[in-house]
Amino acid sequence: MVNAMVSTKPETPGNAAQVQPQPALERKAETRDLHFYYGSFHALKNINLTLYDKQVTALIGPSGCGKSTYLRCFNRMHDLYPGNKYEGQIRLYPDDTNLLGREVDPIEVRMRISMVFQKANPFPKTIYENVAYGLRVRGVSKRSLLDDKVEEALRGAALWDEVKSRLGELAFNLSGGQQQRLCIARALATDPEILLFDEPTSALDPIATASIEELITDLKSKVTILIVTHNMQQAARVSDFTAYMYLGELIEFGVTDTIFIKPKHRQTEDYITGRFG
Amino acid sequence: MIASRKRWDLVFAIIGMLALGIGVLAFAALFIDMLIKGAPVLSLDFFTSFPSRRASQAGILSAWVGSTLVMLVTAIAAVPLGIGAGVYLEEYGARNWFTDLIEINVTNLAGVPSIVYGLLALGLFVYQFGLGQSVLAAGLTLALLILPVVIVATREAIRSIPVGIREGAYALGATKWQVTADHILPYSTPGILTGVIIGLARAIGETAPIITIGALTFIAFLPPAPIESTFPYVSFDWLMAPFTVMPIQMFNWTSRPEAAFQANAAAAGLVLVVMTLSMNALAIYIRYRLRKNIKW
Q1: Closest CA to B153 of B237, B86, B77, B97
Q2: Could you tell me the pLDDT band of residue A4, with boundaries at 50, 70 and 90?
Q3: Mutation for testing the B interface, residue in A69, A126, A137, A194 having most B CBs under 10 Å
Q4: Given A99, A158, A215, A241, which residue has the most CB atoms within 10 angstroms?
């Protein structure tokens, strides 16, 4: 949680999104002047934010503030529906690709950035096939390779020991928390560079939630994580950086401890302390 | 206070039960009437004999073989066309005035009287395409008739797949075709099959369009067998053969003056109803079996 290597400089007013990390942190993705429209509705307004490599960044804010909308820009989920429009860029490093570029195929983006959804959404297939699907999509059909990858992903999602003897069973037979970890395994199997979590524990009980949070902390060593949560304690527990959004704007972004202990904006403080939201 | 409000529960329950009772009783009365009249005629001979001038020797061999073959053609033609159209409209088609127009058309097609399809088929299949009064022409006609049913069933089945499943597949980098082939089609199969079978159950009882394209009412031979003993072993001559179907055979017998033929008609009706009901039962069974593995 607490990242001692990172310190923030005082920010200039009106430039909320600037954080100067120590050189130890590399940037993984940089959002520049992002606007997003659902038809004529201006859902995201001028977002500028940096995701740091192998760090957990949390997006918080009241319902309807655009945090999920922003998250879904990262894997171009909005391309599935007509009438949506992006402006601006999300540059992915080290190769400096603009994820929102017209010339970039959304499928290419989704090959590099995986997503875990709010409600566990396993396919009505076996546990094995659920995890292997991302690889099958990429044309992997060699059994030994699939076996290895499935095991590795299930271990990564702390689910292997619970399911190793019943990989051929339907995924629906798992409990809610196990299903969500299966979805995490499915997202991990394709070795993503960034893992997106959209309120991954909102449908789970406290014990399952704790195991997912623990998992997120473990996964940090392998992958950059962006998580949307409406649970402030969760943001404080799992994230290194926190961004507070309100009405489609990024109000404040910084090291989680700073945001939670000494937020610069009154509004952020009101939200975090529960006076508002 | 609560008692007087609850009285309306009771009133509505009674109205509902009456409505249900009328429907069920009407069918039960018809069925029992046919059973009483037709059951004595039912025997193995009835299924293996051609129609005859003598009621006691007449059977439904050519009719049930004809119905089966026509249904086969109908299913082969309507299933891929209907599923293809449904998948396109749900998954591929952009939402614009053109797909809206197609959508309205498909919905309206389901309400077009079947005789109109018969007239269309007479002009198009029988004369224009030169198919004649054949099994093929009849099968294609009925395929047109049930196409809207299959399309609508396909779309409904696809729509019942949760958004999360579809987004989950796309999020893993799947293409549209991969999502369709690996997820959309397999998960909507129970719904599609149900729609297909209900469509076929409707088609098997259709009389008007088949009469319009000129099915024979008295036919004492079978279409050529599809499998032969000599090379190339399969034959498609049966497609072009003249034929009759169950409802036409029934209609033919009911228009005879002799009472014995009325009994034959009742027996044929019984067979037709049982065929239809067992198709519906099959649809329910398939849906139950396939849905067991899919919960959402």
Answers
A1: B86
A2: very low
A3: A137
A4: A241
Terminal Cα distance for chain A, rounded: 24
The whole-angstrom separation of Cα B23 and Cα B250 is 24
Q: Which residues contact A121 (CB under 8 A, 6 or more apart)?
A: A183, B162, B164, B165, B167, B168
Q: Are A208 and A176 in contact (CB under 8 A)?
A: yes
pTM: 0.82
Closest by Cβ to B187, choosing from A82, A119, A124: A124
Name the residue among B210, B239, B208, B35 with its Cα closest to residue B138. B210
* ipTM topping 0.90: no
DSSP of B13-62: HHHHHHHHHHHHHHHHHHHHHHHHHHGGG-SHHHHH----SSGGG---HH
Do B110 and B85 form a contact (C-beta atoms < 8 A)?
Answer: no
Interval B66-115: pLDDT, tens: 899 999 999 999 999 999 999 999 988 877 888 888 888 888 888 889 99
Q: Which of B88, B77, B47 is nearest to B264 (CA)?
A: B47
H helices of A49-198, in order, are 67-73, 106-112, 127-137, 143-156, 160-163, 176-188
Which of B95, B175, B296 shows the shortest C-beta gap to A107?
B175
Residue B112 CB neighbour total at 10 angstroms:
13
B130: left (phi over 0), alpha (psi -120 to 50) or beta: left
The Cα–Cα gap between B232 and B268 comes to 36
A-B contacts (CB, under 8 Å)? 64
Residue with tokens 């893993």: B172
